[in-house]
Amino acid sequence: MHGGTDEAGSTLAHVLGLLRGGSAPADAQVREAAWIARCVGRSGSSTPLGSDDVTALAGSLAVHHAAPGTVVFAGGHPSSGVWVLREGQLELSVGAGRRRVVVGVLRAGDVDGDIAMLLGMPLPYTARAVGAATCLHLDRADFDRLLLDHPAIARRWLGSVAGRLASAQGRIVDLLGCSLAGKVAALLLDEARDGVVRLPQRTLAAMLGAARPSLNRVLKELERDGMLAVEYGQVRIVDAQSLRGVRAHPSQAHP
Amino acid sequence: MHGGTDEAGSTLAHVLGLLRGGSAPADAQVREAAWIARCVGRSGSSTPLGSDDVTALAGSLAVHHAAPGTVVFAGGHPSSGVWVLREGQLELSVGAGRRRVVVGVLRAGDVDGDIAMLLGMPLPYTARAVGAATCLHLDRADFDRLLLDHPAIARRWLGSVAGRLASAQGRIVDLLGCSLAGKVAALLLDEARDGVVRLPQRTLAAMLGAARPSLNRVLKELERDGMLAVEYGQVRIVDAQSLRGVRAHPSQAHP
DNA sequence: CCCCGACTGTCAGCGAGGTGACAGTATCGA
DNA sequence: TCGATACTGTCACCTCGCTGACAGTCGGGG
Fold first, then answer.
1. SS3 call for A218
2. Beta carbon of A99 within 7 Å of strand C?
3. How far is B42 from B108, CA to CA, in rounded Å?
4. N or C: which terminal CB in chain B sees fewer CB atoms within 10 Å?
5. Which residues of B touch A164 (CB under 8 A)?
6. Which nucleotides of strand D lie within 7 A of protein CB?
């Protein structure tokens, strides 16, 4: 099936299309950005900076007030440093102009840009302020000075990144062991904020490496079973407990 | 997700045992341990400690000489600290007694145990010295002191963990976008040391969430195409270039 | 207000891969 | 040297999910 007759050219064009932030965001690009978006320092679980840190450092951090719709950082460029969102929401998106797809949302307390900066890799998505937003920014030099002056913060930052690594590991395991229904359940459960996942089915499908019709079928089944409410551009989790049960099921059913 | 264990009768072994009536360690356990084993600080790519660091710190690190077959650290228990392998090889395995499955190997320069220690989670596998091995050990206090006294090392450690996070991300994308052949190619390419992957097909299949017969079929196809040599308990990569081409193919074949 | 673009809902057909089973073979310990 | 115990190689059958297409619905901009 994968004989020597495949067109190397079309494959290459496909790959190149992914790398440039072109017009039509290919599924693969959406998928990659969406998964990376799940690896930010989430407030509550694994934020490297506590609110006490932020207040203590407030004077030495650059404050950035972003007007609604403003781009805070742009995908494709190397990360200028670390962003800490203090108020408002930032929408993470891929793709140009009208064809852009939202792959995630940053909320107050979230920290992003650190991994890209540490590794010198380009940011995979663009962040825009949804309403008015207040961010704190550390450039590379500030970041180094922060870690140098505050070893406790350095230590906690290490813990934060380690936690993100562990959750990425967990997602690998989730993705491999389950049927599509299990993957969907796992994705919804840890992507939800306040019981709602505000992503279109197309994006969810891309994140799972699944086809949209297949995803839709699973969603409707789960809705019929009373676990979800499928709405326009979002999914509401109704019965999280049962949903966790779906995730736990072994991969294939068979008598 | 939680770590595995090495001792029959522990809670986790019991829970995993419930999922399948199975006797051998459940595939899910093997899979999880195998993926975590791929997230150690590999020498060369993302080791937090340079050899110069190690020599500079040699006096303050605890040296541990492990006789062949000795257990260096045991799965299921919380990590006592960070292990740096200086000489020899450590075999990472899951499962009790004779039924154990090897999920990875540590080589000179590799660093492990840091993530589990940082997060307070149990180690998912047991490490045994294959031949004679020399390890350096830092307990939690030593680790904290190291990061406190050497900010440059703390900074590099952060970079190392960030690199491991990025590679875990990359694996998620690899796993979702490709056909089974693509997944196999990706797995073999970055699991190989000196062109050889020394894991049985059962373990490889578990890592990919695939069935062994399916994996075997793909391996034989790749062998027929001259890219691999399938041997007893290991796979030898013959033509890495072509294998990289297989990995790049889009997900599904289609006229 | 209406229209256009984006999103959801659904279908028939097909191929990839899972399942369980069984035979052959390499490896290791007694 | 001889089993016991893995591991590999392969089969027929069947399910899951992908493909491509089309109709219905929501929502924002002119």
1. helix
2. yes
3. 9
4. C
5. 165
6. 5-12, 15-21, 26-27
Contact (Cβ atoms closer than 8 angstroms) between residue B152 and residue B145: no
Locate A42 and state its tokens: 């989430």
Chain B, 42 to 61: residues with Cβ < 8 Å from chain A are: none
Give the global pTM. Answer: 0.82
Tokens for A102, please give them.
């939202």
Q: How many angstroms separate the CA of residue B129 from the nearest CA in chain A?
A: 25
Sign, CA dihedral B178-B181-B185-B191, equals positive
Instruction: Please give the structure tokens belonging to residue B82.
Output: 């960070």
pLDDT by position in tens, chain A (length 255) = 333 322 222 333 333 333 333 344 567 777 788 878 887 888 766 777 777 777 777 777 889 998 888 889 988 899 989 999 988 888 888 765 556 677 777 888 889 999 999 999 999 888 888 778 899 999 999 898 888 888 888 999 999 999 999 988 888 887 877 788 998 998 898 788 889 998 889 888 888 888 899 999 999 999 988 899 999 989 999 999 998 888 765 544 333
